[in-house]
Amino acid sequence: MRYQISGKQIDIGEALQKHVKDELGVVVQKYAQRPTDANIIFSKSAYEYVCEATVHLSTGLTAQAKAHDTEIYAAFDSCNQKMEKQLRRYKRRLKDHHRDRVEPVELMGGSSYILASETNDEDSEPETLQPIIVAEMEAKIQSLSVGEAVMQMELAGAPVLVFRNEGKNGLNVVYRREDGNIGWIDPQ
Fold it and tell me: What are phi and psi of 77, to 5 degrees?
């Protein structure tokens, strides 16, 4: 597995890098069959250190965890515990579904846009009905089953996930509802 360990405006020493590789390697090898790479970023926010970890699995799914603490090692250890919990749940769900994905997740390209928010008063009319596009990016849309999409959304900690339904070959959306349940949009 490839590791990319970096710090945002802080120096990451060799001892911390070795600690991250050893500890995260144990967790990933225990719960993930064939991880491809891991990206760990350390940063400092006020008086706390922040650790963000992303592990890409060979199935195409991604697990993410984020933690913060007053000490950098404690921030990583907390992040590592969250990652272990996510990977343990992921492995348990794979066993529950009795379906091992032998092929990697198929990806399809799509465009992702960030639109500027309106700063005008609610009473005033906007100058134009065309929104201002702040950023335009390439997005990857995964081909998953509904169960895998829900699992990927929870692993990523995202509120919504757009995916291509393997069963019907159409675009679908899963999202977390305000009542805590999962919603699924399946257009006809």
Answer: -60, -40
CA-based nearest residue to 90, from 164, 158, 31: 31
Number of domains in the chain: 2
Last residue of a domain, one of 38, 69, 97: 97
Domain that residue 116 falls in: 106-185
Place of tokens 């069963």: 167
110 and 90 within one domain: no
Name the nearest CA neighbour of 63 among 84, 42, 94. 84
Asked if residue 117 and residue 59 are part of one domain, the reply reads no
Q: How confident is the model over 125-180, as pLDDT tens digits?
A: 666 667 676 667 777 788 888 888 888 888 777 888 888 888 777 889 999 888 88
Pairing of strands 48-57, 62-69: antiparallel
What does the alpha-carbon distance between residue 66 and residue 179 come to, in Å, rounded to a whole number?
24
Alpha helices in the chain (DSSP H): 14-31, 72-97, 146-156
Q: List pLDDT tens digits, range 58-114.
A: 777 788 899 999 999 999 999 999 988 888 887 777 665 545 555 666 666 676 666
Give yes or no: residues 88 and 111 share one domain: no
Q: Tell me the CA distances in angstroms from 45 to 14, 59, 72, 139, 165, one per residue in order.
A: 22, 33, 11, 28, 39
Q: What is the CATH number of the domain that holds 162?
A: 3.30.505.50
